[in-house]
Structures are given as structure tokens and as C-alpha cells.
Design a protein that fits this description.
Layout lengths: L1 E7 L14 E20 L2 E6 L3 E6 L2 E6 L10 E6 L4 E5 L4 E6 L9 E6 L6 E6 L5 E5 L7 E5 L7 E2 L12 E2 L8 E4 L2 E5 L1 E2 L3 E5 L7 E4 L9 E8 L5 E7 L10 E4 L7 E2 L11 E4 L8 E5 L2 E5 L7 E4 L5 E6 L2 E16 L1
Antiparallel strand pairs: 1-2, 2-3, 2-29, 3-4, 4-5, 6-7, 7-8, 8-9, 10-11, 11-12, 12-13, 14-17, 15-16, 16-18, 18-19, 20-21, 21-22, 22-23, 24-25, 25-26, 26-27, 28-29
Length: 343
């Protein structure tokens, strides 16, 4: 089922920001699943995966759904998805962790298991591709480091990194599978973000072969505090956001930026909007100036690289991905929406 909602938004200034336009349109699609993992191809094509073993695609407003059921009758939950311009990959949380490769443009999307990991503590949070061949996924520790798997052949095979090659995790530190955005890859760089007892950024500039870890001023110390999401505009400029799941209205220590590839971080808009954010993304073709953050608390935008923010909608979503400057896809609890900013 689809429906469109047109919201009027006040024009606060005469700048060229898309967020100063007077109309925002939502086109909604009902999905029988909680969706935290989406990948977009263009304005008309979206791939997704979620709870109850469900995965699918949305093409020209037509939804194609399928599902995976384990041998014991249980249904995996998918919170990570990636697209390498050829195939879709979906990765389940929990034990066992299962990574499936899917040819998305076939009439019948048939998942092929390409990686399986069994461990009482296995829990993968996010996945991404740097290019058609090289992809990464990260998860909570099964040893004393983050779980980190990598493919160099386009996703046909995956290998887990030796824990000795990764920085050690602080007891109580982990990642959040909130929106498939706890990892980011750009050229040779890979960034991973953490939360819980520590809020840190793990950085590799050689495709995950070697790592360093840096402290951040983000909120930390409790089980549900920390960095939930990250994005980078280029190799130097990036943003991290998050907060406290148990105190979502709190605005202190939940957003920071870097200008040196993640080596140092500076808090922005501290104790100001937005509150808890589960997914942040730079708006394409805005030179890193325009940013959108979403969560169950609403949709928030900045037109000055994160220094100031405003709420443009109180609608609840988990994740967002842009297709172009004026158009993006969002997903949440039993829904997928397309948002269009009209001039």
C-alpha cells in the first residue's frame, strides 16, 4: 500500500538550501518488517532487509518481498545490507551470523549463503562496499576486538581479520546496529564507530589491514550511550552522531565533526537540536554543507556543516539514504518512505 503526504515547511531564509524550500513530500510504503537496512540504486529502485527474515526490493512503486527461514524454523533479523553495483548482500545479526549474496535484477531473488559464523557472542552491525570488489562488515567483539570481515572478490568469499590486527576493545564497548551506518568506506579509508562504555572511532587508511583508534568527546559510559552513526563527505571531513537510547531527548555530547580524517573530533551544536540520532548522511552535491539526521525523534537538517540544526518533520525513521540532492529514501518500523524536496 502506498500513500503520499505533503507537508508545508516554513521558509526561514532565502539561501539555496533544499531545506528552505516550502514543500516536502513523503510517499509511504507499508512493509511487514522493521527495516534498518536499505540500499538505493536510484529514485525508483531500493533494496531492503529487515526483521522476520524479510528482504526485498521496491521498483517503480512495486514491492517484491521474500524471506529466509532457518532450518529450525526461526527467522533471521537483517540489519546490514550492501550493494556493489552488481549484487546485494544482506547480513544477519545474532548467532549464527549469515551473509547472503543476491542477484537483485532476476525475476526471483535467490539468496546464496557466502559466509557463516557461529559464536555465542556473534552480532554483526553494519556492512558496506568501497568498490565493486572490496567490501567490509563489522560487528561486536567475539574476542577482544571488533569482528571485521572483508571480501576482495566482489563478495563471493569473506574472511575474518585476526584479532591481533585490530585495536583492543574496552570492556563494555560495542557497536549499534541501528541503521547500517556504524561503518564507512571511502577510497582506501575505513572508519568504524563504537558506543557503550567508550565512544571511539577506529580508522584504517589501507583497506582494513592496519588500524588506529581515537577517543571522541561523545557521550559514553552507559550501555546505550555513544556513537550510533557516521558519514564522511571526503577523506578529511566527517560527522558522528548518536546519543543515549535510554534518554533520547538528551542533546549533550551526541554530535561531533572531524576535519582530519577522524584523528580529532569537535562537538557541534552541543545541548542544541538534534537529540538522539540513529543515522546521519551528507546531502549529495552540497559540498558537505547540508546534512540530514534521522531517528525515532524526527528528521533534522543542517545547512552549515552541522553547526546549527532544525527539525523538518516529527516522523519516526531509523535510516536514510540519498539518491540525489532533492530525493532520499527512509525506512523505519514497518515502513519505507521516499522523501522529495520540492522547489
Amino acid at each position: 500500500m502506498t500513500k503520499s503526504i505533503l507537508l508545508l515547511v516554513s521558509v526561514l531564509s532565502l539561501n539555496l538550501s533544499i531545506f528552505a524550500q516550502d514543500k516536502i513530500e513523503f510517499k509511504d510504503f507499508d512493509i511487514p518488517s522493521s527495516i534498518r537496512a536499505i540500499e538505493v540504486l536510484n529514485d525508483s529502485t531500493l533494496f531492503f532487509a529487515g526483521s522476520n527474515g524479510i528482504f526485498g526490493k521496491l521498483v517503480n512503486d512495486k514491492i517484491t518481498l521474500d524471506s529466509i527461514i532457518n532450518n529450525d524454523g526461526s527467522k533471521p533479523e537483517f540489519r546490514a545490507i550492501a550493494f556493489n553495483q552488481k549484487n546485494i548482500f544482506i547480513l544477519s545479526v545474532g548467532n549464527p551470523a549469515m551473509l547472503f549474496k543476491i542477484e537483485p535484477f532476476q525475476a526471483k531473488m535467490i539468496p546464496k549463503l557466502v559466509y557463516l559464523e557461529e559464536h555465542p557472542n556473534v552480532f554483526y552491525d553494519a556492512m558496506t562496499f568501497a568498490n565493486e570488489k572490496i567490501g567490509y562488515a563489522m560487528g561486536d567483539p567475539t574476542e577482544e576486538c571488533f569482528s571485521f570481515i572483508k571480501t576482495v572478490d566482489g563478495g563471493d568469499t569473506w574472511a575474518k581479520a585476526d584479532c591481533n590486527s585490530l585495536p583492543k576493545i574496552i570492556v563494555g564497548e560495542a557497536a549499534f546496529a541501528a541503521s547500517n551506518s556504524a561503518i564507512k568506506a571511502l577510497e582506501n579509508f575505513v572508519w568504524m564507530v563504537s558506543g557503550g562504555k567508550a565512544s571511539r572511532v577506529f580508522i584504517s587508511n589501507d583497506q582494513g589491514e592496519n588500524w588506529k583508534v581515537v577517543q571522541t568527546p561523545m557521550v559514553q559510559g552507559k550501555e546505550m550511550t555513544g556513537i550510533y552513526t557516521c558519514d564522511f563527505f571526503d577523506e578529511n571531513n566527517g560527522i558522528i552522531m548518536g546519543g543515549n537510547w535510554d534518554d533520547k531527548p538528551e542533546k549533550i555530547g551526541n554530535k561531533a565533526i572531524t576535519k582530519d580524517s577522524g584523528n580529532t573530533w569537535t562537538l557541534i551544536a552541543d545541548n542544541e537540536l538534534p537529540p538522539y540520532i540513529s543515522c546521519v548522511r551528507y546531502v549529495p552535491n552540497t559540498n558537505g554543507k547540508e546534512i540530514v539526521g534521522v531517528s525515532t525523534q524526527g528528521i533534522f537538517t543542517s545547512s552549515d556543516s552541522g553547526e546549527h540544526w532544525k527539525m523538518i518533520s516529527d516522523r519516526s525513521f531509523y535510516t536514510i539514504r540519498f539518491t540525489q540532492k532533492n530525493s532520499a529514501w527512509l525506512a523505519g518500523h514497518k515502513k519505507i518512505s521516499k522523501i522529495t524536496f520540492h522547489e
